[in-house]
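Q: what sequence does this backbone want?
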């Protein structure tokens, strides 16, 4: 797996206003950025893998990678020609989230709006859900 950049939230719609019936959503700007990353790296047939792992200031952290070999157990979604894969464990934390890509003066990156998060780190890379205690570690955003 090739790992890249910053994390964010999902969307699926031809406009910036997002309405989705899928468990995750990828915004049009996120679709465009993933498409550009795949083209720049000449990675035909790859998908965006979105995952959650333990760590970070808040206990869990987001991850993204360009995936060439999705697993049989992955949940798969398509957004305007961009495939997204999520493993079942990560989907329990990501259900209902929106992934966006923002490009700002102070830097850009993927951002995830996660309705399951009750607390998140200042940088937005880590989060905590209800019933979990905060982690002692830090992702370095402070």
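A:
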């Amino acid at each position: 797996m090739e790992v890249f950049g910053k994390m964010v939230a999902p969307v699926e719609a031809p406009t910036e206003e997002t309405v989705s019936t899928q468990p995750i959503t990828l915004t049009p700007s996120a679709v465009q950025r993933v498409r550009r990353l795949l083209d720049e790296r000449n990675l035909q047939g790859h998908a965006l893998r979105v995952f959650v792992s333990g760590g970070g200031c808040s206990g869990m952290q987001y991850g993204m990678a360009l995936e060439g070999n999705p697993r049989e157990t992955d949940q798969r979604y398509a957004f305007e020609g961009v495939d997204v894969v999520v493993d079942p464990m990560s989907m329990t934390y990501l259900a209902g989230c929106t992934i966006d890509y923002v490009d700002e003066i102070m830097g850009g990156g993927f951002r995830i709006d996660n309705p399951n998060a009750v607390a998140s780190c200042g940088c937005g890379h880590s989060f905590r859900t209800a019933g979990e205690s905060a982690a002692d570690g830090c992702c370095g955003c402070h």
